[in-house]
Structures are given as C-alpha cells and as structure tokens.
Amino acid sequence: MAVTAPASTGAQCCAPIAREPLSEADATELATLLKAVADPVRLRLLSMIGSHAGGEACVCDLTGVFDLTAPTISHHLKVLRTAGLIDGERRGTWVYYRIIPEAVNKLGALFAPLATPAAAQNGPVDVELLTV
Fold first, then answer.
1. Taking CA atoms, which of 40, 53, 68, 116 is between 20 and 30 Å from 19?
2. 125 in Cβ contact with 5 (< 8 Å)
C-alpha cells in the first residue's frame, strides 16, 4: 500500500534552529539571552516589565511582588540588563525598566516556525491510498 500526498510548496516550515546550524557567534549571543531568562524570577520580571501599562515598569512596582530582598531583585534586573533584554532609566529615586524588543524577538524567532505547514493552512489533506 502506498500513500501519496501533494507535493511540497517549498515554503520553509522549520524554526531557524532546525533549518541550519547556528554560527558560533549566533549561538553565543542566543545562549546569553537564554541563560538570562532561564530563571523563574527573571522570566517573571521580564514578563511584568513587558506587560506593564506604558511598556515600562518602575522598580518599585516589581520588588513587592516577590518574597525576595531588594538587592536580590536588583541582581536579577542587572542580569536581564547585561544580557540586553531590558534597559533602564533613572528618574529621581526610581529606575524605570523597559524591554528591548529586538532582543526579546530574537528569542521568539529562534523556535517559531516561519510559515504554517500547508496542511494546517488548508484544512484536512486528501490522501489517496493505492493497493499494490
């Protein structure tokens, strides 16, 4: 019994990480970003900053959410900032943080497929079963 399906459209359906090997420089850069978000506190901080009204959050809005000391929160924010995922601006006593979209988008693009496979776009695929 043979199964035939429509010919491939040639569209790239694989995430960049599955299409071709990463260069050493790209792997190093992406590993730095991944290490920075590989901690639950830092991942939550990044999410809180990105989803905060106006796209930025005061450190005063971030510290009370965690059962951690202010120096520990500062350390986590420094790791995110050093990795290039967030930026901060001092205004008076407080520092306001915002996400750097280009850096966060690199993480998202690493695993996101570039195109939805044809079968998912067009619904069910008709398959013709041939008996031999």
1. 40
2. yes
- The residue with tokens 């009370």 is 64
Residues 57-109 have pLDDT tens digits of 999 999 889 999 999 999 999 999 999 999 999 999 999 999 999 999 988 88
How many whole angstroms from its chain centre is CA 74? 22
Closest listed residue to residue 56, CA positions, set 31, 90, 82, 32: 90
Token pair, residue 120, equals: 């998912």
* Contact partners, residue 68, CB within 8 Å, separation at least 6: 41
How far apart are the C-alpha atoms of 60 and 8, rounded to whole Å?
Answer: 53
What is the amino acid identity at position 73? I
Residue type, 18: A
Query: Which residues face 57 on adjacent strands?
Result: 97
> With contact defined as beta carbons under 8 Å apart, do 111 and 30 qualify?
no
Residue type at position 61: D
* DSSP bridge pairs for 59: none
d(CA 81, CA 78): 5
**Bridging pattern class, strands 56-58 and 128-130:** unpaired
